[in-house]
Known about the structure:
Blueprint: E1 5-11, H1 16-26, E2 34-39, E3 56-60, H2 66-76, E4 81-85, E5 89-91, H3 95-105, E6 111-117, H4 122-130, E7 133-136, E8 143-146, E9 153-157, H5 158-164, H6 169-175, H7 179-189, E10 194-204, H8 219-236, H9 246-256, H10 260-263, H11 267-288
Parallel strand pairs: 1-2, 1-4, 2-3, 6-10
Antiparallel strand pairs: 4-9, 5-10, 6-9, 7-8, 8-10
Amino acid sequence: MTPILSVIIPTFRRTDSLRRLLEALLAQKGVQPELIVVDQNPAGYLDGVLPSAPSIRHIVQPVANASSARNSGFLASRGQIILFIDDDLIPEDDFCIRALDIFRMYPEIGCFSPLVYNAEGKDIALRQAGTKYTASFKGPDDIFAITDTISAALFFTRDYFRKTGGFDPALFEFARTAEDQELFLRMQKRNLTLYFVSSVEVYHDETIPGGCDLRTADYWITREKCMKAWAYRHRIHHHPPGALSANDLFQLARSGFLNKEVLSSGWGNIRKQARLLSASIKSSGEFLNNVPHRHSDVENIDHLINKNTTNA
């Protein structure tokens, strides 16, 4: 029997929170989703962790890459609705059925982000989401089109995700961050609308170690990752791809060090930020010289075909 919903769970260096998430998904009201765990850990790391259930499928990906993990999970899935969810989230028992109701009631919606909130509370999460609104939906007042979102939890119809071309594995390999932001920018160029639905909620437990180290890393490591991601994104979204225009360089400089926060932090900090950006611009060009799709327009890129990821 083909499942209505497939849940893609990339996991890396987490066990307790993964077990908790799987138990919550197995207990969902009104739906029995297909659960696809994409294991990016060393061999045997999840031994004894995964519950014994026929709906759980285990895919092994030897090299940790969040983009490849999501794409591999999607290609292995069978559901018509896809949920990408991080392994440190805690859904209520009606989380999935509430999301499926959105797609049933509003078939023009192809993807949406639920309200992902943390210990600071839902009100702060709502205010942060409000800064990304572009237009209200013609239906209820809790649905908005938005510019971008985090990727902690995302719902797609199967056909809609295929139209995006998937997440960029090379970007994650190069910068280890911002693959979600690049996807949303690419969606805009393909006239694909991303929505936010505040009535579908999930809690993000940010106390859990492991996973992506971006929020716990040293400031300068985080800064380097962001600058590398910005430079990469500007290169692949340029026409022709791979080059950087004067405007690209200005936008990168403004993001990197020509902004109020950095300019007020002292000359030494400004110079260090500028050197990081210069190195990121150079290394992004060198990296993309070895990536086959560098010379393809971003509107035509498809990361869901010709994959090199090893699955088992």
